[in-house]
């Protein structure tokens, strides 16, 4: 039987912590090591923060984010993050973090950058009026 | 939860954060850090030894305060980040701009 978890949070920064820790627990349950579980937690944190800040334009208890996890194969975690903000593909966004300026650190834009670096794969689709971000992580990866 | 304490060793402000720095606590963290830059000589040691989690929300506050300190001819130096926090600093490349020390004492003495 394939295990799965899902959780809906309000668009609240405080609720992101619950979603991220639930994903970390799911990651451990399917056999990911602590590093990989932490990376999943951080990726979900960053994704949800961006949804609230940029997608929904700020915290609002009437907006929500659905986080669903499943294990497509042993030792792998698939995370799907769904929101109803206006269509936005974070994978095509040009973030400041991608443009490394050796003279000074960028003021932000690390969220998507971290997600891409920490996950094995990241996909996006817009369907039935909702953004769907799919993250997959199977093994600890070298982030150097 | 996050707790931030500010103390001084001579003219160096020690900002000690405890707990998690994420989108729900970053504003309070940033306020304390920037406040320490403004209050003294703009020489700050940011002790992250008791921070067990930090997301990019925390990085943003650190960068803001760091640039302000530099504009005042000061600096912010990081002391003793936990491995998970160090990883975030390295992923972002912030370790190429900010000095990171293995202990608070070394960070203070580095000024």
Model description:
The complex is a heterodimer of chains A (144) and B (111). With 144 residues, chain A is an alpha+beta fold. Chain A has a single domain (4-138), classed as 2-Layer Sandwich (Heat Shock Protein 90). Helices cover 33% and strands 28% of the residues of chain A. Chain A has 3 helices and 5 strands, in the order E-H-H-E-E-H-E-E. Chain A has helices at 13-29, 34-55, 110-118, and strands spanning 4-11, 60-70, 77-83, 121-127, 130-137. In chain A, strands 1-2-3-5-4 form a 5-stranded antiparallel sheet, with helices on one face. In chain A, a hairpin with a 6-residue loop joins strand 2 and strand 3 (77-83). In chain A, helix 1 (13-29) runs antiparallel to helix 2 and helix 2 packs antiparallel against helix 3 (110-118). The termini of chain A are far apart. The mean pLDDT of chain A is 90. With 111 residues, chain B is an alpha/beta fold. Chain B has one domain: Transcription Regulator spoIIAA. In chain B, 41% of the residues lie in helices and 33% in strands. Chain B has 4 helices and 5 strands; from the N terminus they run ββαβαβαβα. In chain B, strands 1-2-3-4-5 form a 5-stranded mixed sheet. The mean pLDDT of chain B is 95. Classes of the chains: A alpha+beta (144), B alpha/beta (111). The A-B interface holds A 13-14, 16-17, 38, 41-42, 45-46, 49, 52-53, 97, 100, 102, 104-108, 110-111, 113-114, 117-118, 143-144 and B 20, 22-24, 53, 55-57, 59-60, 63-64, 66-67, 84, 87-88, 90-94, 96-98.
